[in-house]
TrEMBL record:
Native species: Coccomyxa viridis
Any Gene Ontology biological process: cellular response to hypoxia
SUPFAM superfamilies, alphabetized: Clavaminate synthase-like
Cofactor: L-ascorbate
Protein name per its UniProtKB record: Fe2OG dioxygenase domain-containing protein
Amino acid sequence: MTALRRCIQKTIASGHRCVHATVSVQPQEQVSFDSVATAITPAHRQALLEKGYTVIDGVFNAATCQTFRYEILSLRDQSLLHLNSTHLVKGNSTRLLPKHGIYEAEVADKAIQGAAPVIAAFQRDRTLLTMLSLYLPSLPLHQQLIKVQLNKGDGSCFPLHYDSDESVDSRRLTAILYLNPDWREGDGGELQLYPWPHAPVTVAPLHNRLLIFSTCRMLHRVLPSRRERLCFTTWMSVLKPRAAPPSLSQIHQKSQSGALAADALLAEVEVRKALAMLDFREEWQRSLQQSHRAEAGSRALLDDFEAKAGVMQQALEALGVRDRQEARQRAAGLCMGGSAWL
């Protein structure tokens, strides 16, 4: 990896990133994004390929984290954060169902950029994109957008979900930076990852912790938070997305022709997603109720989830996948490398 590291340093030095913000916070320290260039290592690349996620602690200096945090709180004080809502799509109509206590803002908004200039500068900075693209050449990242978030901390949470789908947009990696200097065990607000076929993983929202994971293939949720919790999410997109993985109906057609072996079936992205939905069915239902306290909203989401779960179960049975425990064990033994996640 020595040659790769030299290549990375040369690429960054040649101007593939924006000029850094240099807002002074303390006399002895300035806001800087330079540390991102050395924060990503071969070990993080390997974790992304093998597990679909990686955790990096201590990415920024104290002044930078302090400024990020100050800007999010300032957005709150200026009433520039809005309540997050789940979009429930039915036919040609979309119903917005608010999540309790989750407030956010898109940094693509010019007003937000003006009120949070350092976070906006980080959105323009290309260091993280450059580093990850060099370590993951099959994933040439091109653009990033940031959403800031404030969780009020009275049990507010997110249900199980994927951040996007490969048939919907070009986002491929999610990076969450946590900004909670006083967080302690028991405060809640952890991110729960569900890297099926493996067991769930809990990531604490520790201050200056960067969590990176697969946008379209990592099932996850935010556990109920019992105190105020700050973070911002960076979504990184590719310029020319590969074709989306085949749908369950396309997989069924292929299997009918006898062109799909059992292990190949379990390597299909949509089959794995369907199995994850059914394996975590009860937890998914519970998370919908926790995140949407209005009875009408949670009932609508539960009905929608149950309808989708029923379709998934029928599709899996049509593919001959009836024993989920056996499927999980076989899938865990497959050597798929990065193809499972990226």
